[in-house]
Amino acid sequence: MHGSELLHTALAVINAYNAWDVDAIMALRAPDCIHRVLPESLGQPAMNNTEYRAYFESIQPLFENWTITITNTIEDQGAHKVGFHANSTGTMCAGPYANEYALFFHMTDDDALVLEIDEFVDSDHTKDYFVRLGECGV
């Protein structure tokens, strides 16, 4: 398919996260989708759809007013891939939350669903997030 379908699917994923809607997020994933939270130094295992849904549902109640803002987009139509540089903001139990991401989506051949997600996070912000969750008793 053309690049607009590829980008449309990738932006639909971002919109599903902005809606903080697990069903909308999962609906855009291929049945065999794999989600990796990187860098590897964070020690997060790759997750299939079942594992990712359980993970997301465990953090979903901890955040409010979640917003992802895209600052840069790279699209490779031939490889069925989209990359975003993005920032997120929200509120968590311990106060304001913010993080920075490089997100890479590899789509199915028809660009309709996501096969792989590589989510690079700012590891300093992420480590702080886990400390702050502990302060909330989580």
From TrEMBL:
Which residues are listed as membrane-spanning?
none
**SUPFAM superfamilies in alphabetical order:** NTF2-like
| Every SnoaL-like domain range | 12-110
Domain of life of the source: Eukaryota
- Name the Pfam families for this protein: SnoaL_2
Q: Which Gene3D superfamilies match?
A: 3.10.450.50
Name of the molecule in the record? SnoaL-like domain-containing protein
Question: Organism classification, top ranks?
Answer: Eukaryota, Fungi, Dikarya, Ascomycota, Pezizomycotina
